[in-house]
Design goal:
With 310 residues, this protein is mainly β. The protein is 13% helix and 41% strand. It is built from 4 helices and 22 strands. The strands form 5 sheets. Strands 7, 8, 9, 10, 12, 13, 14, 15 and 20 form a 9-stranded antiparallel β-sheet that branches. The chain has a 5-stranded antiparallel β-sheet with strand order 6-5-11-19-16, with no helix packed on it. Strands 1-2-3-4 form a 4-stranded antiparallel β-sheet, with no helix packed on it. Strand 3 and strand 4 form a beta hairpin. Helix 3 runs antiparallel to helix 4. The longest helix is centred in the last third of the chain and has 17 residues. It is globular, with a radius of gyration of 22 Å. It starts with 6 loop residues before the first strand and ends with a helix.
């Protein structure tokens, strides 16, 4: 998921794949309030990476990735490439929900292991972009309890950020904790603890199997300000817009895309809901940029423009 060119956003929560910061550092991840709550999410099948076939975004909050297998060597005989269809459906709301479905197009039953690697480094966007902090907090060992995983970070001010992950299928999990590296007296950003989840399955010919993974971020201020999944305007109302239609299907599709892009940018901040300046680096209110957006949309989104002025 994070190694594909995918950008999704649901109010405060946004996901960006295959993104690099200045200097070439990989910046893909799941973010909320400028903090990366998931930095690694990768699938394997019997220890082999999957091959991507296609990717599409059905909505600002929904992406679908189609994958297949390379050659798999099993005791009962090899499985030829492109024998299995794997669909990864990614949905954002108040949390991230990923459903992985495997379909067996071979003529025999297959003993398979779907592997999922997960990690969260809890770094903020400024750190990722090169503003290295003098000190860092502490990444805690992953806590695993049956079908639930909790990744956590103790900040320097004593507060804790967490990412909880739940699965709707039984699994076996193992954890690898990398050593801490110190350079010039400063702790360098090292890979966080990596949790490997293995799902064992026997897939009959023509059969499907699926697992849903739910990733829920808990920022340090989540108790005082729960993560919002749907931006509301002043007074708790949803944005209203003027309906525009033309005699050109192409132009109507263009307007629909503009509309979804505006919906994607609309973000809840403590003072209220505003269009953010951009995704992924500038999910923040920029006064000039926000006012320009308000001026451009006042004739179609009057309530949203009024919210900007408030």
């Amino acid at each position: 998921m994070l190694n594909h060119d995918l950008v999704l956003k649901a109010d405060e929560l946004f996901l960006a794949g295959e993104m690099r910061a200045h200097g070439g550092e990989r910046a893909a991840g799941l973010y909320v309030r400028d903090t990366r709550h998931l930095s690694h999410f990768a699938l394997t099948l019997n220890g082999i990476e999957l091959t991507a076939l296609s990717l599409r975004t059905d909505a600002p909050t929904v992406g679908v990735i189609h994958l297949t297998n390379d050659r798999l060597r099993l005791p009962a005989g090899d499985v030829r490439p492109q024998t299995l269809a794997i669909v990864e459906r990614v949905e954002l709301g108040a949390d991230l929900r990923v459903t992985v479905t495997i379909h067996n197009f071979s003529g025999r039953s297959l003993d398979l292991t779907l592997g999922l690697e997960l990690a969260a480094d809890f770094r903020d966007l400024f750190d990722i972009r090169g503003a290295t902090p003098a000190e860092r907090g502490s990444l805690l060992p992953p806590a695993i309890d049956q079908q639930t995983l909790v990744l956590a970070y103790d900040a320097l001010d004593g507060r804790q950020a967490r990412t909880s992950v739940s699965f709707d299928q039984p699994l076996e999990a193992s954890v690898a904790i990398p050593p801490t590296d110190i350079q010039d007296g400063r702790p360098t950003p090292v890979p966080p603890p990596l949790t490997v989840c293995d799902f064992s399955l026997v897939l009959a010919p023509g059969a499907d199997w699926s697992v849903t993974v739910t990733v829920t971020p808990h920022p340090v201020d989540a108790e005082e300000r729960p993560v919002s999944a749907s931006p509301l305007l002043h007074g708790g109302e949803s944005p209203r817009r003027a309906m525009v239609r033309s005699d050109s299907d192409l132009f109507d599709r263009y307007l629909a895309r503009v509309d979804t892009d505006l919906d994607m940018l609309q973000t809840t901040f403590p003072p209220g809901s505003l269009p953010a300046a951009g995704i992924p680096w500038y999910v923040a209110p920029f006064g000039r940029d926000t006012l320009i957006v308000g001026l451009q949309i006042v004739h179609v989104y009057p309530t949203r423009a009024a919210g900007i002025l408030r």
